Amino acid sequence: MNILVSVYDKKGLVEFLKNIHWNDHNIYASGGTFKFLSENGIQSVNTSDLTGFENLLEGRVKTLHPAIFSGILSRDNDMDNIEVKKMGYPVFHMVICNLYPFEKHLLQGNLNSMIENIDIGGVSLIRGAAKNNSRVAVVVEPDDYPLIEGDMAKYGSISEDLRRRLAVKAFGLTATYDSMIARGLSEKYKIESDNFVLALNKGKRLRYGENPDQEGHIYPLQGTGKWNIEHGKEMSYNNYLDASSALETCDDFNEPTAVVVKHNSPCGVASSSNIHEALLNAINADRESAYGSVICVNREFDSKCAENMKDLFVEVVMAPSFSSDALEIISKKKNLRIVTYEKGQSKIRIRSIYNSVLVQTLQNSNPDELKVVTGNVDNVQMEDLLFAWRVVAHCRSNAMVLVKDKKTVGIGAGQTSRVEALRIAISRAGDKVRGSSLASDAYLPFVDNVEIAAEHGVCSIIQPGGSIRDKDVIEACQKAGIGMIFTGKRVFLH
User: Fold this and answer.
1) CATH topology of domain 226-342
2) Most buried of the four, 32, 146, 245, 403, by CB within 10 Å?
3) How many angstroms separate the CA atoms of 22 and 435, rounded?
4) DSSP string covering 146-176, please?
């Protein structure tokens, strides 16, 4: 058996090659991999001995040669065997190859580094081996070494089924790699294309989708932020949806902030000078809805946070990190998912519809303007209005959000009527509605919203403006003594 090895990620490679005890096997390795294996006591043949040249163009050309690819692509028939033997080329039975980390350099944003880390030879080796999977096994990541070892122990060779599965995985990898390069260079060069290239790998099957009779999967998007489940049972489809909403909302705030999400929309958001107080205020904003929620904070989750959440049933809690004391308290809840996250997200949003896929850039909740159109808005009200605006941008439309002292007191979201959304927000707020500030995710089309807000003691309103009835709405605010700010943009979230 002849094995060709050309890897960037060398994790587990030495152990894997030392563990195999197959008769009559030879290892061929390219440049850096050959040196690495030699340093670790594994004998191999440098591919330059096959090709007749050392690395060319500072390593851009190493394996692109008939002496390599003939041995990968040759079929198991007399004609191919005679031709390869005549040339004196080895026939490869396994190709171990992984790629330059383009994703890492994409995130760093340096164009030259991005270009130099577009793998050419590696992708070609992988595609060649995957194409010829009837005879060749292709291994594209260290996690698959045990699969090879298992087959060898069981069958004494690599089974056809495993070769096929590894080939499908390899083509998925190269497709994802190319799509990442296409998107990265498109953004860097600021070139739009009629083609939207998206390939996803390393997917995971979920227990089910939104409902038990639906299948569900999750696929990571390369070049985006990450989250890790540190404790608890596996996340469900709905858990992931809610966790995404919670994290995106939390990411819109710089000061210590906590977000409580239920059914993909915030039900409590609060900022404070410390994270445990923000968390308590966010939970108490609507404690009834917080039952069975997903919670996200943007600071380390400490023991005081844990105490504030101890008596509440929560599906998921997310934070950049957790103190050891906090983990000791909340990890007693066996089913609670404890998730750490790293910031960073995709620059696009993708949604499938009946017969197509919709793609859009991310919403930017920053106001286009801040125009006071009626009344006097003091600094405290301004802080609450801007807080409410950031929250309403993450609530399902139609959405109305009431805020007081940088914490939500009532949220009405996902309604077909804006007036009904306001009524729900006021109902959730109760007595706290008086003196609160109101945010609307789209313009107020009629004066009825202002009249209802005034009746319950709302002191200020922030909204996009732009309605043909803006004049009527402004006059209603003046009559009620309500300050109003226009932002010049809407923040719909369907």
Assistant:
1) Cytidine Deaminase; domain 2 (3.40.140)
2) 403
3) 78
4) HHHHHHHHHHSS--HHHHHHHHHHHHHHHHH
Q: What is the DSSP letter of 88?
A: T
Instruction: State yes or no: is 263 an active-site residue.
Output: yes
Query: In 188-223, which positions are buried (b, 16+ CB within 10 angstroms) versus exposed (e)?
Result: eeeeeeeeeebbebeeeebeeeeeeeeebeeeebbb
Q: Which of 263, 304, 333, 489 is catalytic?
A: 263
- Assign residue 223 a region (left: φ > 0; alpha: ψ between -120 and 50; beta: otherwise): left
- Residues with Cβ within 8 Å of 55's Cβ and at least 6 positions away in sequence, in order, are 31, 48, 61, 62
- What CATH class has 2-189? alpha beta
Query: Lowest-pLDDT range, 191-200, 206-215, 385-394?
Result: 191-200
The b-or-e profile of 287-303 (16+ CB within 10 A means b, else e) is eebbeebbbbbbbebbb
Q: Smallest Cα–Cα separation from 43: which of 52, 30, 34?
A: 34
Tell me whether residue 131 is one of the annotated catalytic residues: yes
Residue of 131, 188, 202, 489 with catalytic role: 131
**CATH number at 371-486:** 3.40.140.20
287-300 pLDDT tens trace = 999 999 999 999 99
Cβ(442)–Cβ(397) below 8 Å: yes
pLDDT of residue 24: 65
Of 299, 304, 302, 335, nearest to 320 by C-alpha is: 299
> CA-CA distance, 452 to 486, in Å (whole number)?
19
pLDDT digits (tens, 9 = 90+) for 88-132: 889 999 999 998 888 777 767 788 888 888 888 889 999 999 999
Domain(s) of CATH 3.40.140.20: residues in the chain:
226-342, 371-486
Domain with CATH 3.40.50.1380 in the chain: 2-189
3-class secondary-structure state, position 442:
coil
Asked if 298 contacts 251 with a C-beta cutoff of 8 angstroms, the reply is yes
Is residue 44 a contact partner of residue 37, using CB atoms and an 8 Å limit? yes
